[in-house]
Design brief:
elongated; alpha+beta; Alpha-Beta Plaits; 11 helices; 3-methyladenine DNA Glycosylase II, Chain A, domain 3; two-stranded antiparallel sheet
Length: 280
């Protein structure tokens, strides 16, 4: 056995190992990327939904943008006030929560209310159905009701009932994913305190609107005349409510001949209480 050759080979391998180790050590220092620990702290404060409502592809990207000062620290809609407070604690600053938003379905075109153009029996997708002769409902502003929004809601806040979408405000995070995916733009983000809603955005003339849906806004202006707070105006053929001016009195709901203005939650309770007191 040639021990000299073996020792020489071992020596060469050891020398190569030493050289490679030095090269790798130099490269690691040369190309080292410093990681700000605040990014990890901000990331830990986020809900992890990766919904994209903040404008970034996911929570990791949003955390990096916050630390870099590229986006406001209260930009996580899904996390709301809790996430804003946790991010502020991670960064050592005070963060004012953004106004809470909630998704609302601007349509009441359930079966029997909105007229059908044809019976749809194809692939259950609103986007696909909308491309077939304008969709199964005659109203071109109606909720198609096949559940693209429900399928894509990461929080399970949307259910489909009687041909339209219903959103549970207690679950909705206000991320806006459903609003972005709706081919008819039937879903809109509204302030959480916007309790009075015009549930129609049909801009056709009154006769055409009523011919396709019994709860279509006809732009009659009765709600405008009844509102003492200048909160309602008819634009583009249908009523719009300024939630900043709205007092949630419910008078517009009472005078609307098409029942397209609705109340929700506490506002509905106040209206019922007022009606009961008036009856007494």
């Amino acid at each position: 056995m040639n021990w000299i050759a073996i020792l020489l080979a071992l020596g060469v391998m050891a020398l190569l190992g030493l050289v490679f180790g030095i090269v790798l050590s130099f490269a690691a220092k040369k190309f080292q990327v410093d990681v700000d620990e605040r990014v990890a702290n901000v990331r830990a404060a986020l809900p992890g939904a990766n919904c994209g409502a903040c404008g970034y592809v996911g929570c990791d990207a949003f955390a990096e943008a916050v630390v870099a000062g590229k986006t406001p620290p209260n930009g996580c809609r899904a996390g709301g006030a809790g996430a804003a407070a946790a991010i502020g604690e991670a960064l050592g600053i005070e963060v004012t929560p953004a106004a809470p938003m909630v998704a609302c379905v601007i349509c009441q075109g359930t079966a029997g209310v909105a007229k059908d153009r044809y019976k749809y029996d194809g692939y259950r997708s609103c986007r696909v159905a909308a491309s077939l002769s304008g969709g199964p409902k005659e109203c071109r502003f109606a909720c198609i009701g096949l559940g693209d929004c429900a399928y894509n809601c990461k929080f399970g806040a949307i259910t489909m009932r009687d041909g339209i979408a219903y959103i549970d405000k207690n679950i909705c995070a206000g991320c806006g994913t459903c609003a972005g995916i709706c081919p008819r733009r039937v879903i809109e983000l509204k302030p959480l305190n916007a309790q009075v809603l015009v549930r129609c955005r049909n801009s056709d003339v009154a006769r055409e609107a009523r011919s396709v849906c019994t709860r279509a806004c006809i732009g009659c202006g009765r709600c405008v005349k009844e509102c003492a707070y200048d909160a309602i105006h008819v634009e583009d053929g249908f009523a719009r409510i300024d939630s900043a001016k709205c007092a949630r009195c419910g008078k517009c709901v009472t005078v609307c001949p098409c029942k397209c203005i609705t109340l929700a939650g506490a506002a509905q309770d106040l209206l019922e209480s007022a009606r009961n007191n008036a009856a007494v």
